[in-house]
Model the fold of this input.
Amino acid sequence: AVGSRFAGWSLRLDDGIPFFTYAASTFPDDIVTVAASRALKGNKLTLKYETAGPRKAATVSLYDVEGLVASGEIAHTFLIPAGLGETLDIGRDTGVAVTQYQQALGV
Done:
């Protein structure tokens, strides 16, 4: 995860299913979650994030070894991730979480 629910994103697996959550703010319309309908096949997940720049629309796509598993649209992106103490977290989302996880801190 990078940032927080005020401006951040999280890529995670819940029960083997890939999820990508993007929060441009805390307003419900500014939070987008892209999720596959099935568990990840193989041991590789590719995230493709395409945008014309900050505050522009974006497209997010998730791929596994068999191809596209999920995609979605983000209406507008943030300029920088929010949170003074927020860092790139791998394996858990410390500080202010980007989203509510199935398990505490996304662990």
Strands lie at 2-4, 7-14, 17-23, 31-35, 46-51, 58-64, 67-74. Residues 54 and 79 are 5 Å apart (CA to CA). The mean pLDDT is 89.
